[in-house]
Amino acid sequence: MACVQAVIFDVDGLMIDSERIFFRLIQQILAERGIAFGNEHFTRMLGLDYPQTADYVIAEAGISDRPEAFNHLYLDRFDAQLETHLDPNPGLIPLVSELRQRRVPLGIASNSPSEYCQRVLKAIGLVGAFQVIAGREQVEQAKPAPDVYLRAARLLGRAPEACLAVEDSPVGVQSALRAGMRVAVINPWVDVPETSKASRKYPSLAGLHEHLSDYLCP
């Protein structure tokens, strides 16, 4: 395959363990109401955007909250952590640093709002590392639709097939593949289509870092 000309990252779950933090906050809010929300829901919620998350929790927990109001409950608690400090997932900083040293254009494609993505980058010390951010509010459809990845590629001035997407969730992998990109899947538990020659799995971001030469031109 041709060399990758740009790398586009997901945010939640990939850069920070936010999805697990969100899930624990949701469990906490429901527990305060006397509702047990089992861990089996975690994998079912991976990669969902905020409206999808609220719809899922409201239906499964049997509560009557309005979706937007429920989202504010756990997002407000998470905001307190964003204002202090979050740890980047292991291997993220060295991977991004080498890509920047090699002058590879970097972008973000997220089901979260772009303003939130910017706050995450600030919290983990990566402000200015990414040339473009394609957030949920900028496109018509969330992942698994290809919209955010197509927008990120367009903003970077690269064809989708020349981009590598770095993803950790099933809906994110679907989104990137539908956009026509190659995908590095940083999650051994995520299934990818057996017919897809555009996907490779790695146990961690460090694992992808070790194999950058498989994608980049010398």
Q: Which descriptors apply to this entry?
A:
single chain; 218 residues; alpha/beta; Rossmann fold; DNA polymerase, domain 1; 2 domains; 6-stranded parallel β-sheet; 6 strands; 11% strand
CATH level-3 fold name of the largest domain: Rossmann fold
CATH architecture of the largest domain: 3-Layer(aba) Sandwich
CATH hierarchy class name of the largest domain: Alpha Beta
Say what oligomer this is: single chain
Please give the largest β-sheet: 6 strands, parallel
List the secondary-structure elements in sequence, H or E: EHHHHHEHEHEHEEH
Strand order of the largest sheet: 3-2-1-4-5-6
Overall number of strands? 6
Radius of gyration: 17 Å
Q: Pairing-aware structural class of the strands and helices? A: alpha/beta
Q: Determine the number of helices (DSSP H or I, runs of at least 4 residues).
A: 9
Write down the overall geometry.
globular
- Name the average pLDDT: 91
How much of the residues is beta strand, in percent?
Answer: 5-15%
As for the number of domains, it is: 2
* First-to-last CA distance: 14 Å
CATH H-level superfamily title of the largest domain = HAD superfamily/HAD-like
User: Which residue ranges are poorly predicted, with pLDDT under 50 across at least 5 consecutive positions?
Assistant: none
Tell me the helix content: 40-55%
